[in-house]
Amino acid sequence: MKIKRFLAPDMRQAMRDVRAEQGADAVILSTRRLEEGIEIIAAVDYDEALMREAARVNAPPAPAPAPMPTRPPAKEALKETPKERAREVVRETPKDAPKETRAGALPPPPPPPPPLPLPASELAALQPMIEQHALETARMRTELGGLRQLLEQQLSSLAWNDMERRSPMRARVLRDMSRLGIDTDVARQLIDELPDDINADQARYLPLGLLSRSLKVSGRALADVCGVIALVGPTGVGKTTTIAKLAACAVKHHGPARVALVSTDHYRIGAAAQLEHYGRLLGVRVYPAYDAIGLAQTLHLLRDHHTVLVDTAGVSGNDPRLQQQMDVLREASAHGAAQLRACLVLAANAQSSALDDSVRAYLPIKPSACIATKLDEAPSLGGLLSALIRHRIPLDCTTDGQRVPEDISAADARVLVCRAAQQQRKLGLAGDDLDMAERFGMAVAGL
């Protein structure tokens, strides 16, 4: 048996020294707090029987055992109070001897106390250091962001130059798509359908054919417009004027008695008056509807009409009234006599991101078709084509002016794509290598 004394500043360090010196099987014989720290006597190869024998030989003779206290009579025990009985039990209970504990089985030390808050004076002294550290951190983030942007630009340029070298015809197609204003994701989707080996003539005409084939049209003629149609879309896209054009076409083919207009736009000043003016010119009656119940009753009343056109308020995608308008249309369709069909109206002169946001906002009502307006005011049709191809919404008809009903025509994919190509040639738009690298380089590199 090897016995050794350990002295450390605290109990935790002393136990580490015991484990490091004698291992986890060491036995703690005694502990004592001194001025220098904590003293621990530990042993290895501990023999309990030998220690008891040594203690019995070296110990002084034990005094004679004291006589056991006699239990008081029953009557006296009854007179004792509970406090006195508890005090007697404590006096009779011997103190527990310190138990031997192995070093490997000691309980974990208590958690350290929480740090004390700094005084106000010290905190004020540290405030300039904290602000300086925050400024340095912000400057480092800015530098890392600039470095990342520079690295992405370099990688994009390398990827685009490599694609021009390896697949010059595909790079030419992407350049033509960029000139048309087609979004990056749609352009990448279209060139994936191209054959691997294409010549210069194919690279010139195939992209237009792919655009025409990818653009979905309803194929419905203006004379075939029938049923209950609600025109929805953002404000200012020309819904009321488009309704007047559709109503004029329906009156021309079916007569004014079988055509009706319904106005639900009570937000824009003069919206109902504008629709009523068109109705008087066409000889068509206009019905107001203020809520879902009123719209359902009006549609039930007009169930025998050939064409019923519903004018709705222009609501953007982030307007809280959009959900209310959708609920009105759903309830009216559920309780009306005829199935209501929603048609989304998009302005071709809007930005590509605005068109995409409008489509996503109105997707919950599942528009059956789309009408493209203001083609004459759009410098480029790439944003409109990208939104229609991306969301696969069939195009019903297009409008390109304010005349009623002359400036409206049924949708034709080839005519629309050729018009987009003619606008591109007229404007002479051409993307440089830096612009092409920024748009397609990261996509080509797969980053």
From TrEMBL:
Q: Which InterPro entries match?
A: AAA+_ATPase, FlhF, FlhF__GTPase_dom, P-loop_NTPase, SRP54_GTPase_dom
Q: Which UniProt keywords are present, listed alphabetically?
A: Bacterial flagellum biogenesis, Bacterial flagellum protein export, Cell membrane, Cell projection, Cilium, Flagellum, GTP-binding, Membrane, Nucleotide-binding, Protein transport, Transport
Q: Which residues form the AAA+ ATPase domain?
A: 225-366
SRP54-type proteins GTP-binding domain: residues covered: 226-422
Biased composition range(s): Pro residues? 60-72, 106-116
Gene3D superfamilies tied to this protein: P-loop containing nucleotide triphosphate hydrolases (3.40.50.300)
Compositional bias of kind Basic and acidic residues: 73-102
User: Which subcellular locations apply to this protein?
Assistant: Cell membrane
| Function (record text) | Necessary for flagellar biosynthesis. May be involved in translocation of the flagellum.
Q: Which family does the record claim for this protein?
A: Belongs to the GTP-binding SRP family.
For this entry, the protein name equals Flagellar biosynthesis protein FlhF
| Organism encoding this protein | Dyella flagellata
